[in-house]
Amino acid sequence: MKNLYRRDEQETDKRNSSKSSSEMKRRKNMKRLGGGGLSLQTFANMKSQNSHYNPALIKKQKEFYKNAKYVSKFKKSMKQQNFHNKYETGESSSKVDDGDDKQKVKSNKRIGVEEVYKQTREEMEKARMEREAAIQAKKEAKEEAEARRKLAKGKMMRKTRHGQPVMKYRIEHLLEQIKKSAGNAGGSSTA
């Protein structure tokens, strides 16, 4: 009886030790993989909720904040430069005339900006007109070629009373092709 009891104890110990090692391996894997998986209920709840996760929107926001940071740095550096320039030239802020000069400079700058805007607008308008003219020319050339092909197709598809193709138009077409290729070959060798 004692032997049976001892054998059962040893078998349970072996089972427990194998369970603990497999349990330990499973725990290590869970740690390595970043924890346990989600339960089905948790997964379903997460899918049903609108988490507003949009990678494109996040990217846009990051870019916006990055640009805002650059703009603020630029403005600070400009303020610093103006501050240093003021002291280097020996200007003082107590003079009343400086305010009038600043207003004149601002109005001059505004006129300059308006002129630049007008120039860029005119350039853009010219470019747009050129693009439209090019598109129109392409469209006309396409329509002309289409009409030519339609006419050639009509000639090539003509049949005699007996259903045979009219050879006159086919031979003319072949002759034109030969003349073109001879003209291109002769023209390219002289050039």
From TrEMBL:
Pfam families, A to Z: rRNA_processing (PF08524)
Biased segments, Basic residues type: 150-162
Biased composition (Basic and acidic residues): 1-16, 85-104, 122-149
Region named Disordered: 1-38, 76-107, 122-166
Superkingdom of the source species: Eukaryota
CC terms in the record's Gene Ontology section: nucleus
PANTHER family: THYROID TRANSCRIPTION FACTOR 1-ASSOCIATED PROTEIN 26
Protein known as: rRNA-processing protein FYV7
Source organism: Noccaea caerulescens (Alpine penny-cress)
